[in-house]
C-alpha cells in the first residue's frame, strides 16, 4: 500500500509548492520588492510583461512530489518539461534547489539574488520563457513543441537506473512528433534501459483554444493510452491538499510498478513488453490564479495561458489584485529575513547530484566517454588505379559501423526509419539487431533482424528517431542517424532547434560540457531514384543546414568509400557539431586509395593530379565537383575532353567539405582567398558539378574573385521515373552536357570544337532513345571506367 502523507508531510510539500508558484509569478511581474517586504507599487513592476503562467503551477506540483520520491527512495531521476513556455516552473525549482545560484552566483539565495533572478527572466540578455540551454537540468529545448517524450526515451536508453519523468503538455500532445513518440514504449527494454514515466498535463487550453485531449470523455482518453500500451492513472482536481494526497499515492504506485517490471526483466528474465505506467494529471489552467478579472474567467481558462493581468502598472485595481495574488502564497512563511527559503523546506529537496536540476545526465558531456573506434583504414577499398572499380560506399561504411557496435555495445545506437538495410548498412546486424519489444513472430527469424536487446533503432517516424538520438547524445552517448535524403526535411525544424541549442552552449553557456555530435547520413540520394521518381528527389536538406551557425554545422560529400570512412571516423570523434554526410548507397567508382583519401578529407578540397593534365601550366578550364554521382559524371566528361582535345589543359578539383567554399572569415573551415584562387584560378571558367541545388554553391562562393566564371550544374527539379543517365541529362549534370559546357566556355574551342559538340548532342539523343526503349542505360555508361 502507498504511504499516506502525514500532516507534516502535507504542510512541507504544500509550502514548497507555494514557494515555486510564488517564484514563477514573480518572474512574470517583479523587478523590485521581490518578497513584498513593502506594499506593491507600480515602480516594482517590470516595464514589459512577458512569459507564460498557465502550466507552471501544475509542473511545480509534479516537481515537488518527485522530490519526495527521490529523497525517500534515493532515485536517479530527470525531469523533462514539454509545455512550450513552461520554463518558469523549472527555473523556480532549480532556484529553490540551489543549483541555479551555483551556476549563476549573481542570482544567489538572498534578497538581491532573488531580485536579479526575477529581473533576468524574459528580459534582454536574460533567460527565455521556454526551457533553454541556460537552464540547469534541462535537455529539452522548449521553443518547439513535440519532442519531450522522444527526448525522454532517448535519455533512458542504456541508463538502467534512470527514471525520466516527461511532462507532456496537452497542447504539445496535439503535434505529430509527440503522437508517434508514445510508441517508444515498444523499444524500451526493462532489462538494459531505464524507465520513462510520462505525465500528460491536461489543463484544458492552449494559447486561445481548448485542447483536444481535454475535451474527450475520460473513458475515451483512458482507452487511448491503454491502446498505446500504457497503464494510465488519473489525478484530477483543484483542491491542493486533496491533490497532494492523490498525487503521492499515484506516484508511489507508479514507481512500484516500474521497479516490479525491471525486477521481472532483470532477475527473472521476463522480457515480454510490459505495460509501463503513465499519469494523466488534470488541473486548472493557471491553477491558483484569480478566478476572474473584470468579469472574465482566468483560472481554468485560456486567459491564464500567458500573463493573466497585463495593465497592473497603470491600473490600481489590477495592481491590488496582483498584490493579493502574490500574497496568497504567503511568502513570509517561506523565506527568511535574508530572502532564503526556510531550512525546513530546503530539507525537502534532494541533495547534490540527486537534484533534478543538477543531474549530471542533463549535462551529458560531463559523463561522455570517447568511442572505442576500430581503425577505419582496415575497411579500405583497394584497387589497381583510380576510377576502375565499382563498390557500394555505404556497404563499406556498414562494416565499419558493425565493429563500432562490437566495441561499444552500450554506448552507441544507429537510428533510421526502416532504412538500415535499404541504405546498405546491414552489416551492422552481425553485431546488433533491431530493438523491438513488441511481438516477434517465427517468420521474423528469416531476415527481420529483431531483438529485444538490439541497438539498431528503426521506426517509420523520423521525428521520434531524431528525438531519441538527441536525448541519447545530450545524456553523454554516441550515435548516427541515416535516412533517405529527400525525407530528411521531415526533421528540418528539429535539427534547427538542436543547432540553436549547440550554438548557445558553445558561445554563451560555458558550463555545458561538449556532447557527441549529431551525425546524419543522407543516402538513397537524388541521383539514384530511378525506381521511385520525382517524389524521392530532393537534395535540399544541406541548404537548410547551410543557414545555421558556422560554429556548429558541417556538410561532407565524400566521393568514394575511402573518403566516406575517413569522414565518418572524424564525425564520430567530434563534439558539438551537426555533421551531415551525403553518400549514395549504390555501387560507384572508387577514386582514392586510403592514404590519398585521408589527405584529401583533411584538406576538405583538393586537386586530383591523376585526372588533371595541367601540371606546370595554366589550365584552360577547372572541372570541379562535390558529391559521388556528379564526380563520376565530371570525371567522365574530363575523359571525353582529353580524348578529343589532347592539348586542352584541364584541372580537376574535388570538394569534400562543402564549407571550404566559404571565405575563412565566414566559416572556420573556409578557404583563404589565396588558397581558393590557387585552386580555382582567378580568370578561367569553372564548371562545377554539384550534388544539390546549384544556388547553394553560388551562395557560398559569391564573394570569390572568379565567381563570374563559376558555372554550377546541379539538381533543377527535373525528374521522374528515369534511368540514372536520363535524370542526369534532364538536369544537365551528365558527362555530355558538361563537355558541351566546356566547349562553349573555353574561347579557343568555340569554333574548333563544333564537330565534337555536335557528336555530344547526338550522344545525348542516342542514350535517351536507348533508355526509353530498353528501360536502362547502356553498358558503356553503367560500366564506364577511367581510361587514362
Automatic annotation (TrEMBL):
<dbReference type="Pfam" id="PF09364">
    <property type="entry name" value="XFP_N"/>
</dbReference>
<keyword id="KW-0456">Lyase</keyword>
<dbReference type="InterPro" id="IPR009014">
    <property type="entry name" value="Transketo_C/PFOR_II"/>
</dbReference>
<dbReference type="InterPro" id="IPR019789">
    <property type="entry name" value="Xul5P/Fru6P_PKetolase_ThDP_BS"/>
</dbReference>
<protein>
    <recommendedName>
        <fullName>Probable phosphoketolase</fullName>
        <ecNumber>4.1.2.-</ecNumber>
    </recommendedName>
</protein>
<dbReference type="InterPro" id="IPR023962">
    <property type="entry name" value="Phosphoketolase"/>
</dbReference>
<dbReference type="Pfam" id="PF03894">
    <property type="entry name" value="XFP"/>
</dbReference>
<dbReference type="InterPro" id="IPR019790">
    <property type="entry name" value="Xul5P/Fru6P_PKetolase_CS"/>
</dbReference>
<dbReference type="Pfam" id="PF09363">
    <property type="entry name" value="XFP_C"/>
</dbReference>
<dbReference type="InterPro" id="IPR018970">
    <property type="entry name" value="Xul5P/Fru6P_PKetolase_N"/>
</dbReference>
<dbReference type="InterPro" id="IPR018969">
    <property type="entry name" value="Xul5P/Fru6P_PKetolase_C"/>
</dbReference>
<feature type="domain" description="Xylulose 5-phosphate/Fructose 6-phosphate phosphoketolase C-terminal">
    <location>
        <begin position="585"/>
        <end position="786"/>
    </location>
</feature>
<dbReference type="InterPro" id="IPR029061">
    <property type="entry name" value="THDP-binding"/>
</dbReference>
<dbReference type="InterPro" id="IPR005593">
    <property type="entry name" value="Xul5P/Fru6P_PKetolase"/>
</dbReference>
<comment type="similarity">
    <text>Belongs to the XFP family.</text>
</comment>
<keyword id="KW-0786">Thiamine pyrophosphate</keyword>
<dbReference type="GO" id="GO:0016832">
    <property type="term" value="F:aldehyde-lyase activity"/>
</dbReference>
<feature type="domain" description="Xylulose 5-phosphate/Fructose 6-phosphate phosphoketolase N-terminal">
    <location>
        <begin position="6"/>
        <end position="366"/>
    </location>
</feature>
<dbReference type="GO" id="GO:0005975">
    <property type="term" value="P:carbohydrate metabolic process"/>
</dbReference>
